[in-house]
Predict the 3D structure of the following.
Amino acid sequence: MANTPGGGALIVGVENRTGDLLGTDLDPEWLRQQIYRRVDVAPEVEVRWERGIRLLIILVAEAREPVEDTGDRLRWRVGAASVPVDRGEWWLHRQGRAGWDQMSRPSQFRIDHVTPGAVVVAREYLGRRDQSADAMADLAVAPTADLLRQLGLLTVDGFLTEAGALLFCPAPRPWLSWTRVDVEGGDILAREESYVGLSLLEQIANIEALLEAANDLVTLGSEFAERSIRLLPARAAREAVLNGVVHRDWNLQEPTAVTWVEADSSLTVVSPGGFVGGVSEHNVLTQRFSRSPALADAVRALGLVDKQGIGVDRMFREMVTLGHRPPMFVAEPGPRVRVRLVGGTPVLPVMRLTSRIQPTVRQRDVQVALAIHTLLHAPFTTAGKLSQVLQRPEAEAAEALEITARCVVGEQPLITAYKDTWMLTEAARYVVRSEKAESDLLRRLGVLWYVSPQLEDAAQVVDSWFEGHDRITSGDYAEMTGLTKGGARGALDRLVDEGLLIRGESTGRNAHYRRPS
């Protein structure tokens, strides 16, 4: 229905054949989120009462770009049936409708303007797709005209769309530039921007090759069985580059600038044009909007980026599960969008934890990954705090914490609730801290810095607790730091001696400490 002109509606709680009202107890927000997670469409869900029976109405708006179902098929409604539709037909019907994408309109170029190199690159990308589960992979060996038509880039009149011309025809200017430096602001080791005459696909392939050459492999021994990993997760780096290309403002002439810093194993992508469609640096994990839907759809169909815009989620997950900092998105004057990824040698203690999470499917859950990352760098979190990290409402952050709490490591829970907070369990902390030789590395990286802290760190632990509480007990401090209650009481008493805390008037089980007034 999202693919169908005008959208549509679904009624939940009605027997399909007879029309009898059965009713439903499903929660509207839960249903909306389940649909969103599967096909990246977040419809409106309304509760209606008919003859005293509760029904749900799913209102599906017309999509700005093709939406694949959970079987990677493209379908729309014809009468009462859902039938297959190819991308070319979808975009043809989209033309002439309000808000249609100019990238889908016919250009002045035909197939004979297509560069052979662009076709080679397209076939290579399509050939990487899973042939057994992906119908698009068959296009790798299809005639060029069929390939372009199935990608939605060739009109029935034989003209390439604007997106097709951009991807497959010689470019009048470089759309990408590459710079490799030794340190920030240091010497330039390599620079490449002489891409005039190459199609956008060829320019992307060249940047990808340069990035692969710069992004060295590091071999992990012992428990990871000589496993080799890039200094910067390849999938995250590729997604950053392609997002900077696909979602840029094509009315601006400057190239998308890609910079690799050797000493930091960092990648910075600066894309011309600011955020649009309600997207900002504060909601890139949850908001979806394509400035050029036809181009984004073609790139997705080629297999260059992940389905339905979930690449940013995976970019975050790939980074934090290796112990790296999350990606940084910044809106700059110009306007421009800058994305920065900082890699380096993977942090083995963090990998040790994230690779042992059960059920295994949760190792791929970005919400679980970000919850763990947060708790590795802070003694506790709450739904309110985590909602800012996940860029989701507090209710959804609470759900993410409950999901994480159902995960186990070594048959023990991964996180646990304490009062109004959530903390890593002792079992999870032990997995990270099991090698004493790694303790200095962990403290330098700010991982579990709050466990058995020194005096200066103890004050920071207490300060974090007071952000949401007006008193702290030895039990609170013991839960956060892993100390015994006696050890926690001694640490808090030392803060009293330093004048950073005062003892409350209560004693025994009600004994507590407060900030000085």
